[in-house]
Amino acid sequence: MKINCSRTGIGTFFAVMLLLAEPVMASVVMLNTRVIYPADAASKTVQLTNNDNIPYVMQMWVDINNPASTPENADGPFVTVPALFRIEPNAGQSVRLIFTGSGLPQDRESIFYLNSAQIPPKNVANNAENQMLVVLRNRLKVFYRPKGIVGGPEDIASQLRFSLKQQGAQWILTVSNDSGYYASFIHAAAMVGNTPVLFKADMVAPKSQASWVSEKRASSAAGAQKIKFTLINDYGGHTQAEARLN
Question: What predicted TM-score, i.e. pTM, was given to this entire model?
């Protein structure tokens, strides 16, 4: 299979290949773990590095919430500059992310996804016309952050409320996020004394709630009075906190 490196050719190729490509550990990686995009920013820079000994063609685009998106149907209100480029072996590349939208809520964050697709040079496929090239794709969360949000991101933990109820043999933990920020959990446990009852934690949107089910074979959460949890902060680090159950 040949790749036409024009913008149209790349887009047609992606329409087929990206449906087959799963997020993997690519050799070209984005150094950011997430992008915080302040509403008053002219742009934000994303750094990439090629850890391989061969060059790659890279294409980047933003979608709203479509893991199967392609450059041709990208619907995110951002452009990347450049959007299509070659990255040399063991080298870096800076890409500017520019907001082009309007009409987003001003009292809470909005989330989008930055995609990077890594296309190998055709000689990696031994120039075989009928050999399928593997496109590697990764996705990065982009948080659009208005100035009108009350409080700072460091206050997220204090604006979370938790309630617990039993449902059959399992326990349901409901999290209410009263802040204007996304709360990105990597861990949540109801504490029965010193024994944790773990839940399948995930991200909770601002001014909304989510319910999680206790993990399989979890012990009873009866008598739990507090929740211990870990959040991902703006820098990709971990912030540990705890809260009393309502």
Answer: 0.86
